[in-house]
Structures
1.
Amino acid sequence: MIFTQHKVPRKNLLNRYGDVSLTGEYETEIKNNNKRFALHLGALSTGRHACSQLAVDSGMIATISALRYATT
């Protein structure tokens, strides 16, 4: 998904590893960009895996249902 010209309220930010100041600057305690990127990516990977697994499971159920219907 891509959002253009959309502002997320500060209270709704996922700010486990960093935060945005009132002046709009990103602040974090993790100074190494590679380590910070890896931490953010790791947090997102579980949710993405769960979504993709749900899509695969739903597709399998739909295929099985369609095949059963087609044989009757």
2.
Amino acid sequence: MSDEEKLEESLRDEFDALGKNIKDAFTGVWESEDRKRISSQIEAGISEVGEAISQAGTDIRESETGKQMRDEINGVADRIRTGELREKFEQDLVSILRSVNTEIEKATEGLSKSEPSDEDGPNEETVAGE
């Protein structure tokens, strides 16, 4: 066996040993009591958070504020179903549009009165510039 072949074999052996050592290290860490304890603590913590969120939801639903919110939401839903809210919205929209149109009319009246039309004949600037 040549020196080059011995070197290649040594490299192969070292990489094999490295792979085995890395695998053993990960296996050891994964199976360690510390990892199992930490995993159990994380699972317990997540479970406690879930229970706390569930309890908070129950508390809110059963509280006076929660009941008021539910009643208000149901009231809005009823007004939407009966068309009351839609009718009120349409009335308000008509009122707003009427006000906007009135203001635009006022603004455009002022503009059209201050500008002479072509029917009035040439103005002084046109005559002087000719």
